[in-house]
Predict the structure.
Amino acid sequence: MFNLVIFGGPGSGKGTQSAKLTDHYGLTHISTGDVLRQEMKAGTELGKIAHTYIDHGHLIPDQLMVRILADEIDRLKEGANGFIFDGYPRTINQAEALTAMLEERGCKVDAVVGLEVPDEELTARLLERGKVSGRADDNAETIGERLQVYHQTTQPLKEYYIREGIYRAIPGTGSIDDIFNSIKAEIEACQTHPTPNA
Ligand code: B4P
C-alpha cells in the first residue's frame, strides 16, 4: 500500500492534482470536500451540518470529520492498493487520527505533498472558480475566512509532517502538467528511498 496526503491551502490544486494522480497510479481517491458536498447536495443530516460550517469558511469539527474518513476508508478499502487523501487532514487531531487508523490496518502515510501557492493566487483561482462552480464558499468573504483558518489551524501540519520526515514541498504555481510532473518525481523518490515505519 502507498498512502499519499495532498496538502495545501484552499484552491491550491489538491483536487486537480489528485484526479491526475489517481489515474496515473491507480490509487483510491478520498476527498473529504467532495464527500461533504455530496451530502449537502443530497440534503442529508450530515449535509445540513456541513452547510453551516462550509458556508462560513470554517472547518467541520474533528470528531465528525474523523468518523466520516473512517467510514470512507472502510467503504473503499476492498482491493485498494493505496489512498490519496485530498483535503484531509486539516488539523493536528485529524492527522493523529489518520495515523492511528492506518496503523490499525498495518500501514502508514508514506508521503505528504504540500502544494505551496501564495494567498493572492489562491484568492484569484477561487474567485474564478466561483463564477462557474456554484459553490457557496467561493466568494470573496468566505475565501478570506478560509485562508485565515488555513494559516491558523491547517498550516501547522506542515511542521508536523516535516518532523515526521515525510513532507515534500512542491511549488503549486505554473502549469497543471508541470506541477504534476514535480509531484511524480517526489513520489518516485519516496518509493526508491522509503521512510521506515516508526
Ligand atoms: P476542499 O473540497 O478540500 O477544497 P478546496 O480547498 O476548495 O480546493 P482544492 O485545493 O481541492 O482546489 P482545486 O484543485 O479545486 O474543501 C472545501 C471545504 O470543505 C473546506 O473549506 C472545509 O470547510 C470543508 N472540509 C473539507 N475537508 C475537511 C476536513 N478534513 N476537515 C474539516 N473541514 C473540511 O483548485 C481550485 C481552482 O484552481 C480550480 O478552479 C482549478 O481549476 C484551479 N487550478 C488548479 N491548479 C491550478 C494551476 N496550477 N494554475 C491555475 N489554476 C489552477
The longest helix spans residues 176-192. Strands lie at 4-8, 28-31, 83-86, 111-116, 167-171. The CA atoms of residues 9 and 50 lie 19 Å apart. The first strand starts at residue 4 and ends at 8.
